[in-house]
User: Fold this.
Amino acid sequence: MPAGLAGYILRRLLTVPLILIVVSFIAFALGRLAPSDYVEIQAGTRAQPETIARIREERGLNDPIYEQYVRYVGDFVTGDFGTSAKYRLPVEDVLLPRLWITLQINIVVVILSWMIAIPAGVWAALRRGTWLDPLTIGLLLLPASVPVLVSTPLLQYLLVVKLGLLPSGGWSDAEYFGVELGIFSKRAVLPVLIMTLPAVAGIARYMRGQVLEVLDQDYVRTARAKGLPGTAVVTRHVVRNALLPIVTLFGFELAALTGGSIIVESLLGIPGVGQYAFEAIGSRDYDGIMAVVILGSTMFVLAMLVVDVTYGFIDPRIRLGEGLSE
Amino acid sequence: MQTRNLVYTLTAIAVALIVVIGGLSLLVLSGGDDDDGGAANPDDTGEEGPDLGDRIEGELRLFGADPQTMDPACATDAGSAEYIVEIFSGLVSFDKDLNVIPDIAADWVVSDDGTVYTFNLRTNVLFHDNSRRVSAEDFKYSMQRALSPDTQSTVGDVYLDDIVGAEEYSIGEADEVTGIKVVNADTLELTIKEPSEVFLEKLTYPTAYVVDQREVGDATCFEANWTLTPNGTGPFKLTDWDLGTSITLEPNEGFYLEPKPTLSKVTYVLSGGSAFTMYENDELDITGVGINNIESVRDPSNPLNAEYHQGDSLNVFYIGFNVNEPPFDDPDVRRALSMAVDKEFLANEFLEQLVVPAAGIIPPGMPGYNDDLAGLEFNPGAAADLLDETGKADDVDGARILTSGQGAAPSDILQALAAMWEENLGVTIEIEQEDFGLFLSDINEGNFTMFSLGWIADYPDPQNFLDIKLHSESSNNESGYASDEVDALLEQARSEPDEASRIDLYQQAEQIIVDDAPWIPLYHGRSSYLVKPEVVGFETPPFVIPNLRYVSIDR
Assistant:
């Protein structure tokens, strides 16, 4: 690895804590500025107001927000991520199993959607001007145009109630190879289906656009002119160059891997990160909200870093400002 | 050229539809295979229903949710208590007929002045791990823990406040609760401040249950790690709690009461969308029925109809007024609003008989329920006249009714109520939805003119409704209602030993309250549910009691 690259990565990494501090403070303050707190919500209507007040005091909920924030950060850096107020358990105990479930779903969704989208995009671009191009894109846009809030109950009704092909929702804790891999269970089919279908169109259209652009380039014409067979031109010259800008798109997907879909997970009752995020906000599970936010923003920052660095490797013209200094 | 493009696009969409639907079925069929180890072919998957391969003989499958807490000292809600009463136990409990029965206590003696309860404990009660007998010392520890300020329970002081010294201990002003005395390992003596007819009933609530000191130590309500593997004493053992996925109970072979639990396993499914769909899919043995499905289930031609059951539920849903602020400080204004509400329509037509209209406060099925209570009758003409006489119609117009909710549209019931007031009284009542937390704090602080709320029994006694919700000094009296007459009746009832006279006192108080109308009691919810034919002995109790040990599976 060139020395300049290491320095670049280091500089970028140093900004990570800074970004996290800003993001986490905003999330922290917003959470606590929301009316009422978890002690009040959990107490319901039965408790004595004096008892609630005493517990809030003991749990430090009456302290100024910046004091609470400093305490939170202090605990966080020493590895104490706080207590999920909803489950009354350490946050990591609640979040990690959910993270595993969300990861399984998202990884499969990403693989499936790219496997469909890239060939579909190339296929459509190469058939520009024929009816197959609008057909392919139209076909892919159709599921993408239906909000998951609509498609989820629709598919649930069709596949579960009417056809009886699938269980109605939830997640299986079935083990394979000694690991909980619910993704191999029938219960995973519905969420994967619902999340893959709309994801394809965006990538496919982007890919199609890139391919069309590359097709007009001089070097493609040159390759054709010197008599290379059509498939070789496409695989060696067109697709490889068209894929380049797509890497950015992939970065966003990478960043979203740990963030569950709030709607799909909640509607299907899948105990993933998205469902927890939704629950945590409603129950003022402050530390839970913080953990989800920090996890999400860390993933995002790191994914963007990976994208930038990868770019340098794929395209030697972009060497991260090296050319400028030398 | 343009028409050709249009034809292309339309063709594209049509083909898209065909391919998407075809693709879906393919995906589904191929996905269906790998779960059953490839044994099933797509044809029989449909018939058998999914995931049936791992059914266990004698297993009961229920729909559930992660409880707020599994710690008896901290439980504030029925959702938590439902699990806790099966896993833990206390001195006394309710049987199926809602009588207080001896549980870990074999029997008890009450002193002549009604303030000292001496419990003789059973000698054959072991903790689930069979390591140790439950002793009087365990009870002292458990009850003190629920009361201790260090535990941070919001309800310890609510259910155990009758005991001498409980209050001082709960605010950190005493080293122990003087009213809890360990006479010897098998004898516990509880002294209460004044005679109370509901003290034993309060002891059936989880806050008085016994927990294993060696396991719990000084854990607060917010340190619930131990509750993932609790060492209880109840009819069932918690064998697995996979957060958000499932809770599994297994019978406690050494349970000390008859009947002993016979189910081989109880599985609460915590994840998954609609319980009703899961029931139809044979993934559950019991499910509740809501308004969306009730019509189809009631249809005699529906096979599910034979599995449909309905039972009482001890609760009341009501509209409360802020009786200390105009315009609702005037009882006539409150009565007028009450008389303009057609509860029969609301309960029978609008809510499809899922509920029964409420004339008073005490629900049917509860001791003290008064069938002859004179409620404020629905009479739109008289209601309008009454409101006119007060001359306060303009003040009522635009009043807000506070409710908890997050949906885009407020509850249908409140909208129906508002329509009734509009039509019968010509006043517009606005509905204001608030997030649950904010709603609670506004209710507790009196920031409202009207609100909608429900109340569910902790124990089957009119005291639990009337004294707790409407005595002028109760912290649960949100509407701020204060009547010397009612207070006197309620206080007299607290220690009236004769059951019939006590009920009579409550019924007198209830009638005065209904006439004063600090609330509009709307309806009493009922439980509507489906039970598979092979489930024997299941009844949804009208409130939370340990009832799974009465259930068996006969297949």
